[in-house]
Amino acid sequence: MPEVTTDFNYKTIKYEELLNDFKILLKDNNLKFTVQRELILKTLYSCDRHLTPESLHQLIQKQYPSLKIGIATVYRTLALLEDSNVVTSLSFGAQGKKYELGAKEHHDHLICTECGSITEFVDEEIENRQKNIAKALNFLMQDHSMQIYGICDKCQTK
Amino acid sequence: MPEVTTDFNYKTIKYEELLNDFKILLKDNNLKFTVQRELILKTLYSCDRHLTPESLHQLIQKQYPSLKIGIATVYRTLALLEDSNVVTSLSFGAQGKKYELGAKEHHDHLICTECGSITEFVDEEIENRQKNIAKALNFLMQDHSMQIYGICDKCQTK
DNA sequence: GTCGCTGCAAAGTCTTTGCAGAGAG
DNA sequence: CTCTCTGCAAAGACTTTGCAGCGAC
What is the DSSP letter of B144? Predict the structure, then answer.
């Protein structure tokens, strides 16, 4: 069996580079570079977890108490980032979406139904197979996502 | 390449059988068999589309105008059916969930980003690969789902 | 008859929008 | 200066809950 890897390189891009791309994106669309937008990007970059708009907002408020930032701005910026394919959103059974930086290598998710933790993995074989299926069904694939639900290693030993 | 099939057998169970299982389920849990519950089950069975609570509610009202059914009952019954693994819910980028009968063979989804249509498919190779991955990562798999997003055949020719 | 179920409406979540002032370019 | 952004609060969309009467068993 080919290897499955979960410790693939998270950050395929340096923050400076990401930030620069973001500035270019903004300029190209006649949008403005603001402290709020930068901190949302930076927080998404530095946090490995998958964040809800709510938790992202709280995290920013905790880390930068002097800055006022409204939840509406978080939603608006996440929508902007998602439209520009800078972040990707995941929606599960529960309410709400979780966001993650899309600048990482493509990967799929193992979701623990006990503790809600998300582990990522990549598997070449599945990636290839998906491409083949789309081709066979004359479906123009833009994106795909796969989730495996179950009990994670930690929760099994509890 | 092994075949990919989209015309697999939808109904692996006859309605009478499904209904009977449902009645047993209800009895076992001291729950009552009501017209509303039956019609929700029947509508889910006879409709091939993936339904939102909203659309399921409208469909029932249209088909059985004499019956009064509240949206709350639809939500309550869907929750009950989902807990009992009779139906499965899918949540995508958009708001809300869609439900489908879980009594079919397991399958994955092709979702058109143009028209929102959902095509189902099964692929043995991916199914097997998923099992192997879960095993390799010591993850106790309970369920899994895969979605491929893109432009469907019809929308490409438009 | 009992006790769960239902429709209704009200209350909850989560998300989006309108607006007037603040701030980037 | 101009025109976009922001925070706030109000509005929306979707879902859940409390309740009193109804109905299955």
Answer: E
Write out the residue range of the structural domain in which residue B83 sits. 4-156
pLDDT digits (tens, 9 = 90+) for A106-150: 678 887 777 667 788 888 888 888 889 899 888 888 778 888 888
Q: Any residues with CB less than 8 A from the CB of B15 and at least 6 apart, and which? A: B42, B45, B46
Output the pTM of the full model: 0.78
Strand partners, A90: A98
d(CA A67, CA B16): 62
Rounded to whole angstroms, the Cα distance separating B129 from A83 reads 32
Does residue B152 belong to the interface with chain A, where contact is any CB pair within 8 Å? yes
For the range A73-77, what are the long-range contacts, defined as Cβ-Cβ under 8 Å and sequence gap of 24 or more? Answer: A73/A36, A73/A40, A74/A40, A77/A36, A77/A37, A77/A40
Distance measured from the CA of protein residue B72 to the C1' of nucleotide D15, in angstroms: 9
Question: What are the chain A neighbours of B140 within 8 Å (beta carbons)?
Answer: 150-152, 156
CATH code of the domain in which A44 resides: 1.10.10.10
Asked if B96 and B113 touch (Cβ cutoff 8 Å), the reply is: no
B63 C-beta neighbours (distance < 10 Å), count = 13
Question: How many angstroms away from the CA of A30 is the closest CA of chain B?
Answer: 27
Interchain contact, B148 vs A150, CB within 8 Å:
no
The structural domain count of chain B equals 1
CB contact under 8 A, B156 and A133: no
Which residues 36-75 of B are in CB contact (within 8 Å) with A? none
Which of residues 70-89 of B have CB within 7 Å of strand C?
70, 72-73, 76-77
